[in-house]
Amino acid sequence: MQIAVIEDHDRVALLLKRGLENQGYTVSVYTDGESALGSIHPDNCDLIITDIMLPHMDGIHLSKRIKELYPDIPILMLTALGTMDEKINGFDAGADDYMTKPFDLREVYARVKARLQGKTVAPPEKIIQYDNLTIDVDKNEVFRDAIKIELTPKEFKLLKFLAKNPEKVLTRDEIAKNVWGHFFDTGTNYIDVYIVYLRKKIDKNFTKKLIHTKAGVGFILSNQL
After folding, report:
1. What total of structural domains would you count in the chain?
2. 156 and 71, same structural domain?
3. Which of 16, 68, 83, 186 has the most CB within a 10 Å radius?
4. Whole-model pTM?
5. 32, 55 in Cβ contact below 8 A?
6. What distance in Å separates the CA atoms of residue 127 and residue 63, rounded to the nearest whole number?
7. Cβ partners under 8 Å of residue 53, min gap 6
8. Per-residue pLDDT at 124
9. What is the mean pLDDT of residues 178-183?
10. What is the rounded CA–CA span in Å between residue 172 and residue 222?
11. ∠ CA 42-47-53, rounded to 5°
12. What number is the average pLDDT over the span 149-155?
């Protein structure tokens, strides 16, 4: 497995490179976002670890571009900042996971392993249809009544999980594991925040509401409520 580390702090980059190589991975290091973007491709990269603060192109913009080009490459974002807004910006940019500095290398190994294991699952359905909601998985596009709705990568992933389990109440734990991953911070309200985002985009302009809350349990995609 090949990992791209994008980090302009030499000591941190070397720590990650040596540590991951000791775990059996092949590691390429880039010190700025532009050079990484010009070099990374699915043929030479299975996972990306990137800092947010980078020269020439920061990790937020880099992640957006990578996900536009290669949506299946998982991204683990590193930052010295750990505020809610900072984390949401990272997820909105397409980050699959998020760690704050300083970090424990053992946790990095665990998160990398979990993300790379996730790449071995069967290919998803190309089109998910529920009521008047259409999700084109290949193109990352969403429509209601043929009206295109723009979603961030994390909103898209959350909606896709709801749509693959229609008429089923999904607990926050289930959503956390399947949308945010095994290392979701249970002390946050990311899920509730993103459900609000989704409702504004998916339901606000339509009489029939599809995304519902089951108080004390979780959330459900249903046209029956």
Report:
1. 2
2. no
3. 16
4. 0.67
5. yes
6. 25
7. 8, 59, 79, 80
8. 53
9. 80
10. 17
11. 115
12. 94
What whole-number distance in Å separates Cα of residue 217 and Cα of residue 170? 8
Q: Which residues span the domain enclosing 208?
A: 127-221
Are 86 and 156 within one domain? no
SS3 letters across the chain: CEEEEECCCHHHHHHHHHHHHHCCCEEEEECCHHHHHHHCCCCCCCEEEEECCCCCCCHHHHHHHHHHHCCCCCEEEEECCCCHHHHHHHHHCCCCEEEECCCCHHHHHHHHHHHHHHCCCCCCCCEEEECCEEEECCCCEEEECCEEECCCHHHHHHHHHHHCCCCCCEEHHHHHHHHHCCCCCCCCCHHHHHHHHHHHHHCCCCCCCCEEEECCCEEEECCCC
What confidence score (pLDDT) does residue 123 get? Answer: 53
Do 12 and 111 sit in the same domain of this protein?
Answer: yes
Q: Same domain for 113 and 160?
A: no
pLDDT value at 122 more than 60: no
CATH of the domain at 192: 1.10.10.10
- Residue indicated by tokens 């996971």: 97
Same-domain pairing of 80 and 157: no
Provide the token pair at 61.
């913009």
C-alpha–C-alpha distance, residues 55 and 59, integer Å: 9
